[in-house]
Amino acid sequence: MAVIGASGAGKSSLLALVAGELPAWEGHVAALPATLLTQRTELFQDTLRGNLLLADPTADDARLWRALADAGLAAHVATLPEGLEARLGEGGAGLSGGQSRRPALARLLLRGAPSGCSTSRPRGWTAPSPLMCWPASPPARWARAC
Q1: pTM of the entire structure?
Q2: Helix, strand, coil % over all residues of the chain, rounded to 5
């Protein structure tokens, strides 16, 4: 699903309403639990593993690699000598701009919510900024579109 509109049209407000972060002025809002990928993501000075385990401290390596694959970052991490132990700087230093959002997406996937939503525009999107939602196991083609 994509909700498309110009900046200031209310896409983020709609997302906050559906996520329960804003109360409805009238009526009733019903939604399944979801995890949000906002325009600003936090990555910490830690290993990639440490940043991912914030979402699920019990996740084993297989789950971490699956989340990285679904987020479109596993191939790059596999080329790093340190792999999951690669150190990230604050804000994702050590990753390219496009790659720096992918650990946050992998964390979102590790949380196990039945769906997720993002207010950020995927790379190559030419329409106004969308509000995108996806199932907990997004198709691989979605990760490549980010």
Answers
A1: 0.63
A2: 35, 15, 50
Domain count, the chain: 1
The span from the CA of 115 to the CA of 1, in Å, is: 11
pLDDT tens, position by position, 9-59: 888 788 778 777 778 888 888 776 666 666 667 788 899 999 999 989 999
Token couple for 32: 């399944």
- Give the domain CATH number at 32: 3.40.50.300
**pLDDT tens for residues 61-119?**
999 999 999 888 999 999 999 999 999 876 667 787 778 778 888 888 888 765 555 55
Say if CB 49 and CB 64 are below 8 A apart: yes
Burial 96-120, CB ≥16 within 10 A → b, else e: eeeebbbbbbbbbbbeeeeebbbbb
Rounded Cα–Cα distance for residues 6 and 11 (Å): 9
**Structure token digits, residue 131:** 């509000």
Decide if 132 contacts 2 (C-beta within 8 A). Answer: yes
